[in-house]
Amino acid sequence: MEKYVINGGKKLEGSVNIQTAKNSVLPILAAAVLTDSPVTIMNVPDISDVRNMVRILGCLGCNVRYDGQDMIIDSSSAYNCEIPRELAHELRSSVFLLGSVISRFGKAKIAYPGGCDIGLRPVDLHLTGLKRLGVKISERNGFIVCGCDKLTGNEIMLDCPSVGATENIMLAAVKAEGTTVIKNAAREPEIEDLQNFLNAIGARVCGAGTGTIVIEGVKKLKGASYQPISDRIEAGTFLIAAAMCGGQIELCGTSSENLSSLLHKLRENGCKLRIKNDKIYIKNDKRPVSVKSVETQPYPGFPTDLQAQMTALCAICSGNSIVTENLFETRFKYVPELCKMGADITVVGRSAFVRGVEGLKGATVIANDLRGGAALVIAALAAEGRSEVLDISHIDRGYSQFEQKIRLLGGEIRRVVI
Ligand code: EPZ
Questions:
Q1: Which of 96, 97, 121, 128 for mutating ligand 1's site (highest number of atoms within 8 Å of CB)?
Q2: Pocket flag, ligand 1, residue 30 (CB < 6 Å)
């Protein structure tokens, strides 16, 4: 077990490079199984979700090797269509492999996926979509078992714009016979990134980023080298950290248009923001002003993956805020931990009622999930005095070099093995 020890109250100053997007790399790794030509994914972040995805690819018989930070995946010798429970439980993205493994082998067997404990996280939309493409599916003793003589294109209407279901159906449809149309598709930038990767290896996908995605089935795919987009959630986490701690920081290798809903809120908080090419500058040297409300929505609305970090910021604003989580049922588990630092937050149903306090004080807190854990770290950086954040393996799932980047910005943080 490892923890962070943090001495808070320091302003943040300096420049930080943003990692390649976790939520792009994971579906793209699943997509690599579709082709038997080698693919290179550039600048892959060193995070445990990626390492676990690589273990799953290895279990399927794919050959994965690193060239510096680039990852080369050769699926030509892939032979296995089963993902064991202990691997599937490690991360939500194991479910993306259903679409690509079925496309590759005509069958797949995978235990129900794991991932952050932030809600029920059903996979009904994934399975309904795959059935529309001709997949026969049975669920027995915790496994999803799929079989399919031939994948056939079809029209699929998603009940809700699920990111994972959209991606899974895209993967299964790439080599299906005929045309697939996904309606009410998720619009996240990572979906467009997956489309661009699939087209780079010879697929014919269009419409990602809108609510309707069209996939023309192709017979053969090829190899490619691909640089996925930068991680907008890591970028947003650092921007909110700067708003909380004060000072001024520059984010490099990021894109502001994927963050416009957060940037709008940070301006309301009184932060000064400047955007130049792939850099975002933020400056804040006074107590942030509260925003009246934050409502998480599917993209381009406010991202649920920044909800915890934004609530931490609201906790020290002058004034009150209401943060409403519309996507996941239990994504406020970090709130009692923030209250140990002196935050004044009451959760009622899907909303957190936040009374801004002058400042937080250091405390020992426990990370329950990836983004809630990150929110506790930035709250500890802004708090006066010493904090400990326990069980930081949750944070290691999605932030590479997290403490190194924070130290580069002047934050006092160190990792301790206990
Ligand atoms: C992806 O999860 C991301 N994970 C999540 O990021 C992110 O929070 C989420 O999209 C929303 O943006 C990856 O990309 C690996 P969904 P996913 O399917 O695909 C319901 C992080 O911190 N739903 O869009 O699991 C579901 O219950 C992680 O990086 C169904 O009802 O999210 C939820 O209420 C956390 N049936 C809503 O849709 C289904 O079959 C959104 O879920 C699927 C989803």
A1: 121
A2: no
Of ligand 1's listed atoms, the one at least distance from the Cα of 398 is 29
pLDDT digits over 47-85, tens only? 999 999 999 999 999 999 999 999 999 999 998 899 888
Task: Give just the sign of the alpha carbon dihedral 367, 187, 114, 2.
Answer: negative
For residue 57, give both structure tokens.
Answer: 């690819």
Gap from CA of 328 to ligand 1 centroid (Å): 8
Point out which residues pair with 110 in neighbouring strands: 83, 144
What are the residues whose beta carbons fall under 8 Å from the beta carbon of 413, sequence distance 6 or more?
4, 5, 6, 377, 381, 403, 406, 407
Separation of CA 48 and ligand 1 centre (Å): 19
To the question of pTM greater than 0.90 for the whole model, the response is yes
Q: At what angle do helices 97-105 and 48-60 cross, to 10 degrees?
A: 20
Measured distance CA(61)–CA(55) in Å, rounded: 10
For residue range 191-210, list pLDDT tens digits in order: 999 999 999 999 999 999 99
**Could you tell me the CA-to-CA distances from 207 to 182, 185, 187, 194, 283 in Å, in that order?**
9, 9, 9, 12, 37
Alpha-carbon gap, residue 195 to 394, rounded angstroms? 29
Q: Ligand 1 centroid to 308 CA: how many Å?
A: 16
**Ligand 1 touching residue 162 (CB < 6 A):** yes
Task: Report the atom number in ligand 1 closest to the C-alpha of 49.
Answer: 15
Q: Tell me if 26 CB under 6 Å of ligand 1.
A: yes
Strand partners, 15: 250
